[in-house]
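Archive entry: two folds, one per protein. Generate the first.
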Amino acid sequence: MSEPEFAPPESVSSVAVVGTGVIGAGWAAHFLRMGFDVAAWDPGDGAAGRLTASVRHAWPVLEKLGLRPGASLSRLRFAGSLAEAVDGAGFVQESAPELLDLKIKLLAELDAAAPPGVVIASSTSGFLMSDMAVAASTPGRLVVAHPFNPPYLIPLVEVVGGRSTDPAAVAWAERFYRHTGKVCLTMDREVPGFVADRLQEALWREALHMVDSGQATVQQIDDAITWGPGLRWALMGPMLTFHLAGGAGGMAHMLDHFGPALLEPWTRLTAPELTPRLRDLVVAGVEEEAGGASIADLEAQRDGFLVDLLELIGKHRRA
């Protein structure tokens, strides 16, 4: 039996958010800002209170960034069950903990409970949909939609299907996310970690090596990115940045001139062993760098900066 066709993404008025940790709560805030009704569910004790607090905490910066017509905190409700959350939803966003067996079970339950023809997206940061959809009866509507924290401010979402995903579901998800203000990176094939996390992981591994070997402190590593390439990456990625590094000759000169340096032992992509010593060094270094600021303080600082940065990027792109 063929799966029902998907309704136009623009017709969706309600979204189910299943799993309301940091990422799920961020998705809820994003969809509320975009003017949707949001039904959320999470089996954790106190989840409803934490979700409400998280969304209220994010709301002032979202108001500064701009709300879509109809956007309101009053459109959030916490459902009493998974089935209640997805009942009548036009789209489902799953953001459960990153455990493969849990994802397999939950996606199968969502597939069984969600209305026919509704796309179900997983926020997984690394699992393949081909591996997560194995227990679903209609895997054709299951897609990966990997966001970046906080989802209510960072525009990027990586969209990719699995072996059994209907290409129409991937196209629908891309269209839906774009309709909600997201920037989509839609992948043609699955790869663990997708694109951005693989790039982040390479940098993260080298950073851990440098701390472990005493070559750099946590503060020095953050300063190196914040006051160096990070400033350029906010507007241009590493590829276009290196294109400029080649001068008038562009990337061709860059590769011809600096290509031999790729053979130099400058980086170590194999992860270091996360020993108790390395863990303590990183934790202590971050706490020292934070200077006593709480997580909430740092989140507020980050969110305010990101709003200003997004406005600045928009100004330059329009110009």
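Generate the second and append.
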Amino acid sequence: MKIVYNWLRDFVDVNASPKDLREKLSLAGISIDSIEEFPAGPVLDAEITANRPDCLGHYGMAREVAAIYRLPVKSPQPKLNESAATVSDATRVDIESPDLCGRYTARVLRNVKVQPSPDWLKQRLKAIGQNSINNIVDVTNYVMFELAQPLHAFDLDKLAERRIIVRRAQPGEKIRTLDGAERTLTKDMCVIADAARAVAIGGVMGGAESEIGFSSRNILIESAYFDPISIRRTSKSLGLRTEASYRFERGADPEIAELASRRAAELIQQVAGGELLAGVVDIHPRRVEPLAIELSRKEFLRVMGADVPDKDIEEILAALGFQLVRVDASRTAVNSPGAVWRCRQPSWRQDVTRGIDLVEEVARHHGYEKFPPRLPPSKLPSHRLPHTEALDRLRERVVALGYQEIVEIPLVDPKRDVIFRPEAVAPAVIGNPLAEDASVMRSNGIVSMVSALEWNLNHGQRNLRLFEIGKSYELQNGEPVETALLTLGATGLAQEKTIHEFARNFEFADLKGDLDRIGELAGGFLWSAGGPGWMAAAHGAKISLAGSSSETHSAGTAGQLAKRVADPLKLRQDIFVAELKLAPLLAAIEKTRAKLRFAPIPRFPSVERDFSLVLPDGIAFAQVEETIRSLGIVELKDIEAADLFRGGQVLAGNFSLMIRVSFQSLETTFTDEQLADFSARIVDALRTRLAAKLRAS
């Protein structure tokens, strides 16, 4: 909304500079984006929120300025030169749909002279971005930007039987609007009609067949109030946004309609002459009594934490149009802590309905900067959410592994989602999506992670490690179900080139190693072959929590994106992803942490022994580890896979695996005999159970 400084001063004698006015209005909650110079004077560009349609006119802005500077507001007092003939003899108004039109006023002027507008009117309209059309139309636009009340002028001679009927449109009824387009209406739309046809879309745009032209002589001025919801629906349905619909859909002031009509009649007589018929046709079928709202100092202190003097409270609210009286027992006492004011809601402030709204009005005009910063008293002790500590530890571990957290929008493309969606999952489809490629809630975290990796790769980021703590969505028996997830994604280099090491690409083993480090928090993971169809068969696995069966306590999946999936997405690098169910993982982390006990630092050194084994293909490291641990060697500390080799002197159908076993005693230093016994037992068990052969010890 553009505010002409000199136009504003027609209603309030403010002497502050436009720059100072900009600062004060912004502090009061009405942001001024810029100040420009025009022949009509400085113009302030104000950002008006949807709840303040009264500020979409200079008069409403003047009330705000008056409250800031504690100045009186000069109300418009139109002076009319009416003839002896009455308007009721010239036209008639019938409202057949009072639910769509709550008030309709009509005035008639005869023998006006339609011509170009005077310079002062053109300049002010140009300053607010409006083109001049002719003096009659310009006046209706001028009054709209002055009083925030849209008006419309009809050529009275073009109205059948010179009457107005406010009704619902007939299904399929057509009208050619002022922009030259023919529009098809529905039965829920409000139209202004004469005795034969629709001549305007109520509150949105007039019709071409009754528009004012330079040959027009007799005119009817419409000033009405239309239902905001109806106007919003009509405007959106027709794709027709106008300055009038912008104001009506936010809730215009029904009580200002007659004043705006008088103001327009006054200006038309000034710029176009003519005879104004006496009186006004004013049909007001639904009058609403203003609300009585109470403001107490006790409530003000509770909300703001500081007081404001009685004088300031009363001056601010009076300047904003609230009629207020003290109603407490000690109403004559100044600044009484028990003071209570009863305020009458102005017709232009439909957003003010409660005492807390009055607190806000006083506070923003008194100045938020004058209130000391204070924390409100806590009514209830605060508690951390369930599993918060476990989630913090999980996030710290993932970040320490080099992953960066992302937050993805859960609305995804259904074509992408179906690629990664398990067969048994019913997707949660959005009923009224904003876009086709965001019309379903993601059924897992992988679809969002792959999109994030794709976006970064397309923008030149080649080495990525990302994670997200989010949710997946599905329908079970028609009811929505949300599942918390941890999703990881990686691509590019695992190790950059240094003077000591060569560059190395990220591989499945790196992902598995990272997940094992995460699994340490939960007591470890168990790995098994297999995975969903979008995963590469050779580099995919199912994950379950240690100590639980994979069928009943599945933790998730991890693997490489299959080439047949990656190629259509134009992913030119190997993509590795993992998804873990958060609820069982956090529960396991808490359970594992509860078992932690402090142990003394060992006095005796640990000992490592390497075993270079030849194993048949198909034997997993987990089987080797399980075989060794089953021996029950108390001093056994750790088992690691140190090296893997195929080919060379290793026969086909076999592979070489070097494992490193650590032993630790808290009581004594190991002897050679003890270590030899441990080694012999390990080699014998591996040979017997896994057909392993020892290459060297």
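Annotation attached to the second fold: The chain is about 30% helix and 30% strand. The chain has a mean pLDDT of 92.
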